[in-house]
Every structure is written in C-alpha cells, then in structure tokens.
Amino acid sequence: MTEKHKSHKTPIILAEGAIFAALVAIVTYLSWIPIPATTGYLNFGETVIYIAALVLGPYVGAFAGGGAAIADLLVPGGAAFAPGTFVIKTVEGFTIGFLNNRLKKKTSPTLSAIISVLIGGVILVLGYFLYEIPLLGLSTAIVEVPFNIIQMLVGLIIAIPIMHAVQRVFPQLKS
Questions:
Q1: CATH number for 160
Q2: Pairing of strands 40-42, 33-35
Q3: For the whole model, what pTM was predicted?
Q4: Were 67 and a residue from 21, 85, 95, 160 both cysteine, which residue would form a disulfide, CB within 3.0 to 4.6 Å?
C-alpha cells in the first residue's frame, strides 16, 4: 500500500471509529444490567466492539472499544470503571481486529473470528479481574469473572453471524 493510499484511509478509519465508539456507548448504556453483588454491570456493547473489529479491523475495533468508557461515565456507579474500561476495551478491540486480519489469511473467516474473539475475551476477563482487585477486592473481582465470560460469549454468538451478513452485503470489506 502506498503512502498516499494510507493517508486517504486515515480519515475514513477515524470516522468509522467515531461512529462505532458512539454505537458502543449507546448500546452499552441502553443494555446495562446491574450486578448488585459487584457494583458492575453486564451489557451488550461487547457485540458492537466485536463487529467493528472483525469487519473493519484493529483501529476501528480500538476506537469502538474506547466508546465503552463513555457509557461507564453515564451509568450509575460506572465512573470508577471508566479508566479501566477505556484501556481494556481499546486493547481488546485492537487485538481482535489485528488477530482476525492475520488469521483469516490462514483459516476460514468463522474460525479466525472465533479465535480472535476468544483471545480478546481473555483480555476482557483478565483485564477487569486485575483492575477490580484494588477497586472492589479479590472476592468481588472473582464474582465478576463469570459475568464477563457471559458477556464475551454472547458478543461472540451475535457478532459472527452479523459479520457474515455485513460481508455478504459489502464483499469489499472482506479484504
């Protein structure tokens, strides 16, 4: 890819990233389900991060992940999670997009997406676990782990069929 071609993609990536960050914030905010035992919450914004990363790549995935921190600032009791969410979900979105781009050259689109999301899910689960230990205590951080796993699995189950549907409608996004 030439330098001129790369520079023309930057505004598009920024626009797609901003749109997906806003979508993640909206979906997260509208779908939050409080977990009283931990002061955390379950949500479906994860699905949008996965779709962005799988369809549009690591940079849009990273921007999308950062949008989850916006929702943390809006939901009751979520502000304490916002710094951790920003880092965890940005790294998660980037990793999923990066791995998917690498793996889909060597395997099927479905398998590459599953592997990428599962590895990104490890970042989600481990990241929140480590972030929550000093914030909430070890026992509460442990209680959050299954909820984060559920959030990741629901995101995976929903995102992959949507990824395929989007790529059928816009085949140019496969490359």
A1: 1.10.1760.20
A2: antiparallel
A3: 0.93
A4: 21
